[in-house]
């Protein structure tokens, strides 16, 4: 027990410190005890305070005695401190032992998103018949997205593609930049910088102010463009028919090219397809816009429309993916629900 006397002899203090340090169970209580003996108002310190009233000789004599006592207590403290630290470290080491025999944590295997799977499948098909795959920015100029494609400012066809405008302007014509509404501006980008024959597809993200079960504000398209001295609408029919048969791995399907309107093609068509077997058999499904590239657009590419002609198409990747896998709602693609995503592995 601690001594609680009004006056202490130096020996009492040493004994008490010895006892108290011995009883300290951990570093925290040891450091508390230290304060009681060696702190600013500690027991040893009070002895030093008494020195003030002594003569010089007594001061020297007593000072040596007090200092020895202090050193003794400090020595005991250091020993106990080292002992406790070692104990605490040992305890920690044995608690934190690693069991090397436990089985490892398995890694989750990710998979390619269904839309990317479709994109890769399409790229492979078109590469096999000599098309180059190109890529470009999602932020576009008004010229590339609309005007060069025969939809000048104020053209009513622009309202079919309501978009997101940026606060930044295109320095060339002072019009705001925008998120591309379709992949068609890739036609302009590529054809103004490359000489015919031009034979490309351009897959990527597109944006419109649209959101419901079959529309998402961000969606994917794939653009196709073939320009040369003789390629025509007839080539479009052959190529697109073969593409769909390869894509769905099904020869038993029909296509129709329904007259339509796009400012950048003349004639323009909506491509519809129909499965002749399977669960979707007998229904016409709209799959792509297409057409023969308009002479004004050829001119905007910087090419002579008397010399060059060609076809273009723009198809929605979500639509193709939904049909291939029988998916009913487009929003599944963007919910990141693994139960959905993991079903599509091929
Ligand atoms: N860009 C059109 C759209 O998003 C689709 C399209 C139609 C692309 C006809 C074309 C085309 O290249 O020739 O609605």
From TrEMBL:
One GO BP: phenylalanyl-tRNA aminoacylation
Keyword ATP-binding: yes
PROSITE patterns: AA_TRNA_LIGASE_II
TM regions (residue ranges): none
HAMAP family: Phe_tRNA_synth_alpha1
Family matches, as SUPFAM superfamilies: Class II aaRS and biotin synthetases (SSF55681), tRNA-binding arm (SSF46589)
Protein's recorded name: Phenylalanine--tRNA ligase alpha subunit
Alphabetized PANTHER family for the sequence: PHENYLALANINE--TRNA LIGASE, MITOCHONDRIAL, PHENYLALANYL-TRNA SYNTHETASE
Subunit structure: Tetramer of two alpha and two beta subunits.
Entry-linked CDD domains: PheRS_alpha_core
Annotated compartments: Cytoplasm
Annotated Pfam families: Phe_tRNA-synt_N, tRNA-synt_2d
Cofactor(s) in the UniProt record: Mg(2+)
Gene name, Swiss-Prot/TrEMBL: pheS
EC nos: 6.1.1.20
Top-rank lineage group of the source organism: Bacteria
Keyword Transmembrane recorded: no
A Gene Ontology molecular function term of the record: phenylalanine-tRNA ligase activity
Binding site for Mg(2+): 266
Occurrences of domain Aminoacyl-transfer RNA synthetases class-II family profile (ranges): 122-323
Entry-linked Gene3D superfamilies: Bira Bifunctional Protein, Domain 2
Species the sequence originates in: Candidatus Kinetoplastidibacterium desouzai TCC079E
């Amino acid at each position: 027990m601690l001594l609680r006397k009004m006056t202490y002899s130096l020996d009492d203090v040493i004994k008490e410190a010895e006892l108290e340090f011995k009883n300290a169970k951990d570093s925290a209580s040891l450091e508390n005890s230290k304060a009681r003996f060696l702190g600013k108002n500690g027991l040893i310190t009070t002895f030093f305070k008494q020195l003030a009233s002594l003569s010089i000789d007594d001061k020297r004599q007593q000072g040596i005695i007090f200092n020895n006592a202090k050193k003794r207590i400090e020595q005991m403290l250091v020993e106990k401190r080292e002992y406790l630290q070692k104990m605490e470290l040992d305890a920690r080491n044995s608690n934190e032992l690693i069991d090397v025999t436990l089985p490892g944590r398995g890694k989750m295997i990710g998979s390619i998103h269904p839309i990317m799977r479709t994109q890769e499948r399409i790229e492979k098909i078109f590469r096999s018949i000599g098309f180059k795959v190109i890529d470009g920015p999602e932020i576009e100029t008004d010229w590339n997205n609309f005007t060069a494609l025969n939809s000048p400012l104020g053209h009513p066809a622009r309202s079919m593609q309501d978009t997101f405008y940026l606060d930044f302007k295109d320095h060339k014509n002072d019009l705001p930049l925008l998120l591309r509404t379709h992949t068609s501006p890739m036609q302009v980008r590529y054809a103004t910088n490359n000489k015919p024959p031009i034979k490309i597809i351009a897959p990527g993200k597109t944006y419109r102010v649209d959101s419901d079960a079959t529309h998402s504000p961000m969606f994917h398209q794939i653009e196709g463009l073939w320009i040369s001295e003789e390629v025509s609408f007839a080539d479009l029919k052959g190529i697109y028919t073969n593409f769909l048969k390869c894509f769905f791995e099904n020869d038993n399907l029909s296509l129709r090219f329904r007259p339509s309107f796009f400012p950048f093609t003349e004639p323009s068509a909506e491509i519809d397809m129909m499965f002749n077997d399977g669960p979707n058999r007998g229904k016409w499904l709209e799959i792509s816009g297409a057409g023969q590239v308009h002479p004004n657009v050829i001119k905007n590419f910087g090419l002579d429309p008397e010399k060059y002609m060609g076809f273009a198409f723009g198809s929605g990747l979500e639509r193709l993916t939904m049909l291939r896998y029988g998916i009913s709602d487009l929003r599944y693609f963007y919910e990141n629900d693994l139960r959905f995503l993991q079903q599509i592995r091929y």
